[in-house]
Amino acid sequence: MTKRLSIIATKDGYIFAGSDAPPIDGWANVNAGLKYNLYADPVRQRLLSVGTRYEMPVGSPHALQANKGGQFDLFMTGGTRVGAYSHFLSATGFRLPADRNTQNQQFYWSAHVDRRLPNRPLYGLLECNWYHWMTSGTGGLPGVGGLDLYNLGSRAVAGTNIVTAAIGVKYKPTALSEIGLAWEAPISTRHDIIDNRFTADLILRY
Prior knowledge:
With 206 residues, the protein is an all-beta fold. The protein has strands at 5-11, 14-15, 26-27, 30-41, 46-56, 71-82, 86-97, 106-116, 122-133, 161-174, 177-186, 197-204.
């Protein structure tokens, strides 16, 4: 839209539950919103942004989507270059449902650090993610929050936490493209719905 204001869409697509899970495959909700750059310094590679997203309840009910009213996400992100080869990025925010009976309020914080191999377009990366449930709902599975994919409005989740860690690599074949792979697993005693997760991404700039 402008150099500072962007339209973002961060969730959509099809959910595959896996062969050993109940038959809950289906379309995910669509999450879209706005992000505004408060501060940007391309020379020092520093950035601070705030934004809001709304998760529209348009997914498949049998895939545990389309909960009543949807939810809002208020967030802040920032990043900076560290030395000649490394970067640190962080994001934090609140997921606030329109109906607190059918969905849970959640706070989250994520941190990312990467380091480029000298003279090569290849980066190693480490990440840590913390999820904290602020309220309980009246439905869902007791004690199961749904992490960052589902919001089940579950009972007995208020005050609980999950922490995960990830390790991966990022390859930049050109200045306008990136390919990334990462493996994530919980490091807290509570796992919720995650045993491990493999993520692949492709970024194209224009």
